[in-house]
Design goal:
Blueprint lengths: L1 H37 L5 H6 L2 E2 L2 E2 L16 H14 L4 H4 L1 H10 L13 H10 L3 E7 L14 E5 L9 E8 L5 H9 L3 E9 H11 L4 E6 L3 H14 L3 E4 L6 H12 L15 H6 L7 E7 L2 H12 L6 H6 L10 H20 L5 H15 L24 E7 L3 E7 L1 E3 L12 E12 L6 E12 L2 E2 L7 E11 L3 E15 L3 E8 L2 E4 L2 E17 L2 E12 L4 E14 L2 E10 L6 E11 L1
Helix pairs in contact: 9-10, 12-14, 14-15
Length: about 600
């Protein structure tokens, strides 16, 4: 009898264990069945959470994925994530808070199966950010840096509209110690850097762009609700230790910031609009059709303030240079307004010198306090109303297709993906900063077939104006395959350097350079110079002229004069008229070209 009782006791325990095991298996199986029936791994938002495009995630670090094949397999990544949550493994609960939140919302029974634990780092992060508002920030182009001529974009997240400077910035950038802009541009073209998200105080970014690099900043307040802001913040946390290969031309700062906005609002379709190139300016304008931009604000750089005082406020500049650089006393013959402007300029200039490590901290503090004391003797409060330039939102798009007709009965068709050259209307762009990539020009002359006239690999021209205090060097580089004066095709390289002077409306430049034309059977090279003038003084009209002289080997000399006018028809359409006089092979070989350009 005792043996029978023991037998049934053992059987009952086995049955109980079997029941518990089967219940557990049934629960997991139930979740798997639900996922399969609803095909959650095919949900577009799950793909967004993994930055998934064209069959693969654009995140390149392994630590962003739970499954070994997670980068290329959305289904396996989803099931491995669920499995880790149920087993309390891989710290998924704390590492990927937005993934977890989305899975809970879409799998009703998952909440009861998750092993919960404390996420102190996440809680500290959310408390620190305390985000309620999001702003897209656009530092404009840096005229003397090839890597920054397109501008930059990042996000500002803040808890109050009135405390912008003590908010936080979410930035994406290449991780690099390279300081040479050309090296950065080269490596960036081929994805040789890791691109990483970072979070830092907004005032540090203001210091970097407004004060160190002297770039104006545009701020665009975005229309995101509380839930959307929360998603953006959580997803940024998920990305903080991961990286993607950084490509200067496409998968750059602006492209990856758009991923954050897509995750914040699931009905946005932004990154798919950029298949070949991502220009910061275009990444802002793409927000307009979604009515995401509530308000635009302009924050001028300290350089813009100094230029404004120098050009528009000071009437008598005779004593300014000696007052600033030689620490001479204020001249008593100056008007009160000029004395105030002298002091305000010197204070700003001193801050500029300190920001660029041109003066020691101890000396800076001493001079700064002395100037403030002197300035306090004038009770007038300076009110420098620096007019905001045209909003970049109202500029032409960055790609261009142009059709020209030459009155000598030839036709030209050109196409360039980016960006802005000397013939384009400068509204919303930085005057004097011109950069083109991959500009293709086809030509059809009378009684001849269509030919490749020119293919520009890279053309940069930086015409930075000088004044009595700031003396940048203007420079340019032109790499292309082109026909030399319609005669023969060569690979061309043209470096140049010089000086420019001007204002926000007009500038004149003098450049010295060399043209080098190369092919296996022949080489041409020259030394020469060019003198030009450009004005944007008239609404919707740009005027320019240039005279250039080149002395070539093989006894060739070339004088060329060009006059052009561009008229803006609408934001993305313009007409251009060119007159060119070139005497290389014939006396006074004149051309008149009429062209229409469309930007997209």
């Amino acid at each position: 009898m005792q043996n029978i009782c023991n037998f049934f006791n053992r059987k009952s325990k086995y049955l109980l264990l079997a029941f518990l095991f089967s219940s557990s298996c049934y629960s997991s199986s139930d979740i798997s069945l639900y996922v399969e029936q609803n095909k959650l791994y095919e949900n577009p938002y799950w793909a967004k959470l993994l930055h998934y495009r064209d069959g693969s995630s654009e995140i390149d670090s392994d630590n962003f994925f739970i499954a070994k094949e997670g980068k290329t397999n959305l289904k396996k990544e989803l099931f491995e994530t669920i499995d880790s949550l149920e087993k309390g493994q891989n710290n998924v609960l704390c590492r990927f808070p937005l993934r977890v939140k989305w899975l809970k919302q879409n799998i009703p029974s998952l909440e009861n199966k998750i092993i919960n634990y404390e996420c102190s780092e996440l809680n500290e992060y959310l408390s620190l950010i305390d985000a309620k508002y999001v702003t897209m920030v656009f530092p404009t182009a840096h005229i003397n840096s090839p890597a920054s001529m397109y501008g930059h974009t990042f996000l500002r997240v803040s808890s109050s509209k009135d405390t912008a400077l003590i908010s936080n910035a979410i930035n994406y950038a290449a991780k690099t110690n390279d300081t040479n802009g050309l090296i950065f541009a080269y490596k960036g073209l081929f994805g040789e850097y890791e691109g990483r998200y970072s979070i830092l105080p907004y005032y540090e970014k203001i210091k970097e762009y407004n004060n160190l690099e002297q770039r104006d900043i545009w701020e665009y307040d975005l229309d995101l609700n509380e839930e959307e802001v929360n998603r953006l913040v959580l997803h940024t946390f998920e990305l903080k230790d991961s990286y993607s290969d950084y490509y200067f031309f496409k998968e750059n700062c602006s492209y990856n910031i758009l991923w954050l906005l897509e995750v914040a609002r699931d009905d946005l379709d932004l990154v798919s609009k950029f298949t070949f190139k991502t220009v910061p300016l275009d990444s802002i304008k793409i927000l307009k059709p979604y009515n995401l931009i509530k308000e635009s604000k302009y924050r001028h750089s300290s350089m813009k303030k100094m230029k404004h005082i120098l050009e528009d406020k000071i009437e008598n500049k005779e004593f300014l240079e000696s007052f600033v650089n030689e620490n001479k006393e204020l001249n008593e013959n100056l008007s009160v307004d000029d004395k105030i402007s002298y002091l305000d300029f010197k204070i700003s200039y001193l801050q500029y010198q300190r920001a660029n490590n041109k003066i020691e901290k101890k000396e800076y503090i001493k001079k700064y306090l002395e100037l403030l004391k002197q300035r306090s003797t004038y009770s007038v409060v300076s009110d420098y109303e620096i007019k905001a330039p045209i909003n970049p939102l109202d500029s032409h798009d960055s790609a261009r297709i142009s059709f020209y007709y030459d009155l000598s009965d030839s036709f030209e068709l050109s196409l360039k993906p980016v960006y802005n050259d000397i013939y384009d209307i400068s509204d919303g762009y930085l005057q004097g900063a011109y950069i083109n990539f991959f500009d293709l020009n086809l030509k059809k002359q009378k009684d001849e077939n269509i030919k490749l006239d020119r293919f520009t690999i890279l053309k940069i021209k930086s015409l930075a104006p000088r004044d009595m205090f700031f003396k940048p060097i203007s420079w340019g580089i032109d790499l292309a395959y082109e026909h030399f004066k319609d005669q023969s095709d060569y690979f061309k390289i043209k470096p140049e350097a010089g000086i420019s002077y001007g204002t926000s409306k007009d500038f004149i430049y003098l450049m010295f350079g060399s043209n080098v034309y190369y092919k296996q059977s022949d080489q041409l090279f020259s030394l020469g110079s060019s003198l030009g003038f450009v004005t944007n003084r008239f609404d919707n009209i740009k005027l320019g002229l240039e005279y250039s002289y080149d002395k070539y080997n093989k006894g060739l000399e070339n004088n060329q004069f060009e006059l052009f006018s561009t008229y803006k028809l609408d934001i993305n359409t313009s007409l251009t008229l060119k007159y060119i006089n070139d005497d290389l092979y014939k006396q006074n070989d004149e051309k008149v070209k009429v062209g229409i350009s469309y930007y997209f």
